[in-house]
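The following record pairs a protein chain with its ligand, zinc ion.
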Amino acid sequence: MTNNPLLELDGLPRFSAIRAEQVEPALDQMLAQNRAALARLFANNTLYTWDGIVQPIEEMSERLNRLWSPVSHLNAVMNNEALRAAYNRCLPKLSAYSTELAQDERIYRAYKTVAASAEFAGLTQAQKKIIENGLRDFRLAGAELNDADKQRFKAIQQELSTLTNQFEENVLDATHAWELIVSDEQDLAGLPESARALAKQAAAGKAGWKFTLDAPSYVPFMTYADNRALRRGMYTAYVTRASDQGPHAGRWDNSAILLLILKLRQESARLLGFANYAQRSLATKMATSEKQVMHFLRDLAGRSRPMAEKEMTELKEFARGRFDIGKLEAWDVAYYSEKLRQQRYAFSEEDLRPYLSERQVIQGMFEVVNRLYGLRIQELSGIDTWHPDVRFFEIRDSTNELRGQFYMDLFARAHKRGGAWMDECIVRKRTQIGVQAPVAYLTCNFSAPVGDKPALFTHDEVTTLFHEFGHGLHHMLTKVDYPGVAGINGVAWDAVELPSQFMENWCWERKALDLIARHYETKASLPQDLYDKMIAAKNFQSGMQMVRQLEFALFDMRLHGEFDPEGDKSVQQLLDEVRREVAVVMWPAFNRFQHSFTHIFAGGYAAGYYSYKWAEVLSADAFSKFEENGVFDRKTGMEFLHTILEQGGTREPMELFVSFRGRVPVIDALLRHSGLTA
Ligand code: ZN
C-alpha cells in the first residue's frame, strides 16, 4: 500500500501519479481505517463531547472526501475505461459506508447527548450547526427506522447510486456516439468561421468537417446552419439521446432506469414518513413546502407566459414573412431566433468574440473581484495537473492572507463531461499549524483556441465562467473553520446558486466590461454601439427562456411530488401536460428530453430544479443593492463578502440574506432584469 498517491493527504493531489488501479485499494484502506477508528472511538468512551466524538468523525469524513475528490474529478474530466470501471466498483462501497455511518445508532445517540449537554451552549455557531445538521441527516438517513426498514433503506440507496451513475453514463455514451460529418462545403452555409474551424479541427486531419452533440459544436450548428434537414438531424439526435427514439433508438436507453429511480426515491421517502420524494427533498432546503414551490413557479409562469407567447408569435410571423416557413419546427427556433435578433439588433454573438479573449476575460474577472473584495489573484506555475490546458491560481486578500487556490480547466475535449461546474478539491479547516486553505476545480467546456488565435469566448461562455467562479468564491472565501459547514457545505441547494448567479450580473455592466472585454488584436475596448446592442438584445425572448426553465422545474417538482411511477400516467404524459401548461415551443413526438435530464436523474437537483429560479430571485435582489450604491462600491462588496460569502452554511440562508439586504427577498429585481415588468 506504499506509494499510493491517493493516500497522501497533505498538499495538492499529485494528479500525474494517479493510476486507475490505485483507486480501489486506496479507498479500501481508507474505509478500513475509518471503520477501525470509529470502533476505537466508541470502545472505551461514554463521555460524549465535541472533541471526543464530533471532531474525530468530522475529520474522518474530510479525509475520505479528500481522497475521493481527485478520483471523481478525473473520472469526469479524463474519463477512460479503466478509471470508469474502478470508479464504478467503488461507488457501492462508498454508498454502503455513508449509509452505514448515517445509520450508526452509536453516533446518533452520541450527537444527541452532545446536543443536550451543558457544553452545547458554549460551542460556536458552526459547531452547533454541524450537530443540528447531523441529527437532521440521521433522521433522513433512516436512524429512527426499525431494523427491517433500515436494511431496505440501505439497499435502496446503493441501488440508486448505481442507477444514477448508469443514467449519466448512458447520456455520455449516447452524446459521444453520434457525429455529423459534412463533406460538401455548401452544407456549412450560414455557419460562422469559428464553428467551421472547430469542426475542421474536430475532423482531426480527415476530409470534411465534424460536428458533435457537445455544446460548442451543437449550439452554433443549431443557431446558424442554413441546411434545415441537417439541423433536423442534429436536433433529433440530441433530443433522443439515451432513449427509445432517434438514430440510436434503444441503445443506452434510460427509459427503464429513470422509472426505477423514481420508484426507489418514492419508496425511500415513504419509509421516512414523507408523502413523496418532493417533501423529502424540501426537508433540507430553504423553501418550506411543495405548495410554496408550486405557487412560486406558477406565479412566475403567470407573469412571463404572456410575454413568451407574444415572442413566439413574433418569431413565427418573422419566419413566415421573411423566409416563407409555414410551420416553425423545434429545430428552427434557435436558427430563426438568431435571424430575428440580428435583424432587430443588427448584432451577433460572434461580433463580441474578438473582444473576449481568454487572457482579457480572466484578467478582467480577477480585477472585478479585486475591486469588490480587495482580492489579488495570481497564477502559479509548476503545479501538477491532469492536462496541459489546466491552469492554477491562488487568491490573497488585502492583508496578504492566502484565502484559496483553484484549478481552471476551460476547454472542451474528448472524454471530458460536458457542461460547466465548480467542485471542491480541499475544504477550509483549522489545524494545529494554522488554516488549511480551500482549493477548487473550475471546469468548463468552452471552444478551444483554433490555430494561432487565442481562445475567443462568446458572451454566454463568459457569463458561465463568472457563474462558476461565483461558486468558487463561495467555496474559497469562507472563514468557517469546520469543513462540515465551510464554503458551500451545509448550504441549502436552493440558496447555493446565490453567489454564482450573483456574479453573472457584472458581465452586463459597462464598467465591468471595460475590464473584461478588449479586442485581442487592436486592444480596443468594446465599442459603445456594440455594447448598446448587446444590452438591447439581452432580454430578447426572455419570456421564452423563462418558461423553458419553468417547464423543467415544474416537470421535476410534479415528477417527484404527485407522479406515481406505478400509475397509469407515463413520464412522457406528465411532461406533455407540463408543456401544455407553460411551453410555447412545440415539441415533436419523438422528443425525449427527460432521458438526458441528468440534473434530476444523475445530479443533485431532484425536486430541486426550481432552485435556479429561486436563487435568481435572491441574486437579482442582492445585486440591486449594488445598483443602488454603485457596482464597484467596496463597502457593499465587503458587506456581501462578510454576510454571505464568508458564512458558508453556518446559518439559515434567509437569515444571511436579510443581514445583507436588510429585508426579505422580493421578486421585483428579477422581473426588471429580465424585462418582464409591465
Ligand atoms: Zn451553478
